[in-house]
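Hello, quick one for you while I still have it in my head. No rush at all, and the record is pasted right below.
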Amino acid sequence: MGGRNGGFGVLIGAAVGTLFLVPANGLAQAQVFRQDPCSSAVVYTSAFAALIGCAAEGYAPDQYTLGWMYANGIDVQENDVEAVRWFRMAAEQGHPGAQHGLGLMYAEGDGVPEDDAEAVRWYRLATEQGYAPAQGNLGVIYDNGYGVPEDDVEAVRWYRLAAEQRFAPAQYNLGVMYDNGNGVPEDDGEAVRWYRLSAEQGFAAAQYNLGVIYDHGDRVREDDGEAVRWYRRSAEQGFAAAQYNLGVMYDNGNGVPEDDGEAVRWYWRAAEQEHAIAQFTLGRMYNRGEGVPEDEAEAIRLYRLAAKQGDALAQTNLGVIYAQRWYRYELGAVLGDTLAVADLGFTQQDLVNAFMWFTISAEQGNETALTNRGVIEQWLTREQITEAQRLSQEWIERPAPEGSEPPETIRMPNRPH
């Protein structure tokens, strides 16, 4: 077995530059034992009951925590409008966590109309109190030009302020800026330093990037064992790219004993999160019977999932499978076994489907698909070519399926301040 090497020429992975908007969230327990700030009485009750009374009387920390509970559906039904209401009450009293939470609600359009200017205003109020998550998000705002002119230097300034308070997402983003030379001179040493500081606090994206750096020997001595260690820490948090790369390490026996079962397990975990390369890789494994039982139907299903996300290799391989099915159909006709072959689901339509998928992949510049389309074109009638072109155009112009695009922001919980 091997990773996506050889003729396919697909890289394992490269350092990601995703930027994270991070709310300052609190942690609520189903039951709490606390000193009631309103009456000084000790109470043992539900988190909601313990908070609501004092929040209604204007106690800002409890108002903030209630806002977080409503925003995340903790001990109450999720309700963004209620979250905004409680955040606003606390924010107007100057609570920095609530100011930041309200800014996040405006940034994402949760419970209020999306309004970048309002998000910036509330973030700024929180940053005036040195609130690290708001500093980090203000960095994201300048990094992307949300409600302000895009300004990498300002982004770096805010990331640094948060990063120096050990705020892991900002440390990661600052690493990205040094990695790419955005707002600061490109500096591999500084990139690795900030990634490591973030990774050591458990930030999955930074752990993944460190894994890639050790995997490729990029800026550090190549070390497969270290790459596996960081991939695993990220993968166990559900980071799909790390799950895929960990699968590749088991697939190739790099830093770990070669283990097809472990490779497949990690590929599946990434594929279930709609990681297109993992879906493609599993599709190829089922098509060839490598590490899993050979299963053409499962290969087609997985290739289609990757193809929907624009993976040109999956689109090409779908064309190959359908072309091979058509060939078996034609061979059956020559040998007089047409009915037996038809029972397996092979039909003349397979050739139309093959031409369709080769066309879709060729539109993305895949030369193999372009060559394959030319090879099979001679076997199609003009009507079949027209149908295949129509189907491919419909596919290319189709609306993106809901949830197919990666989110711009990822919420990471943080303890309340």
Observations:
- Residues 189 and 219 are 7 Å apart (CA to CA).
- The beta strands are 31-35, 42-46.
- The two ends are 50 Å apart (CA to CA).
- The first strand starts at residue 31 and ends at 35.
